[in-house]
Write the structure tokens for this entry.
Amino acid sequence: MALRIVRRVFAALLAGVILGTASLASAAALGQRMVLPNGLVLVVAEERAVPTVAIRLLVRTGSMADPPGKAGLANLTAQLLSQGTTTRTAPQISEAIEFIGASLDVEPGLETTTLTLKLLSKDLDRGLELLADVLLHPAFRPADVTRQIAEVKAGIQRDQEDPSIVSIQAFMKALYGTHPLGNPVEGTAATLDTLTREDVVAFHATYFRPDRAILAIVGDVSEADLRARIQARFGGWPAGGPTTPPAPVIPAIPKTTVRAIQKDVTQANINLGGVGILRDNPDYYAVQVMNYLLGGAFNSYLIATIRSQKGWAYDVESDFSTRKYSGEFAISMQTKNEVADQAIAAALDQVRRMRDTPVDAAALSDAKAYLTGSFPLRLDTNAQLAGWLAAIEYFGLGLDYVDQYPARINAVSVAEVQRVAQKYLDPDKYVLAVVADLTVAKIKE
């Protein structure tokens, strides 16, 4: 029901954009929101077209909550959820999920941890029971903890062979230093060696609580019926627990920092940028438009210059990663070692161009048309909508977000683009992380 409404709403909105008559009054809420007595937030959207259900459970914790010297603890805790409960082993969990043709994925992040379950609606009760079991009753058996640490360490070692991963990790370390954001989500081999089962149990007890969780469900479900099912499975999840420590203060960015890492590669992997904005920043929409013009479109400043005119990189882009408590701006590209320094200089020139020169009005119009026109594609499946519902609740955007987005994008002016460029782009305070053959690449420290 709700998803069909969303699709009809966007069809009307797009027609309105084309005709210049889009109205905020034309849309309906994405879903229904309720809060269980234990604090668990439930958001539901009914979609009866196909007999499937997508569930996204978001917990407000990630690697930002890793204690000092314990990088990787949030990730390890999340990965162990599906590795055994008090009544099931990991193979039994896998068999139960496979038996009903479902999928269960766990994704640890910087600020959040998400569990995604997709299944047929006829198997909803079984799926909810499995989800509740792995979330509420993980066993954290010592053998499983030891094995999972070994698997994570093997993955870290593989990542060190990928220059693009090494570059972004070096960029985050240069930007955030000793703050947890400066560590890989997976931690390091050294920090993983310090983690114990007791650490995992304590982390789970502290952060995996209903008052820190959001449950978004989309598909062939009834909101009224679902409320009872969720209460039966998650109503006994006790609220409260150990006091949650405050997040560490993010340090001030250094004036300039260069991290150049030697690898025998033909392509230099470059990440260049600085601190960005938070998701609740009122300039968010103007920044999105500005960034699209700078490095988010095929004819953006960066691609037109570095790829089309110079032929230095096949792929170059810029991005504002926005979260609730942190965010970064980064320009990413791969280019030949021999021209790495020139490509970096050209990227900085385009940042200054965005700051110093008003953008073309026609280019701005095209950017806004693309951003509003492509937005409905992000809500095209039950799983995508479940992800959006969880994110909308997490960021406090409101279930009328589909109304807000096109209107706010379309309200961005040429002057607004330049204003936010001057406010949030500061090439004199950027950090640079380059993984390259430094015997060839000319990287100035």
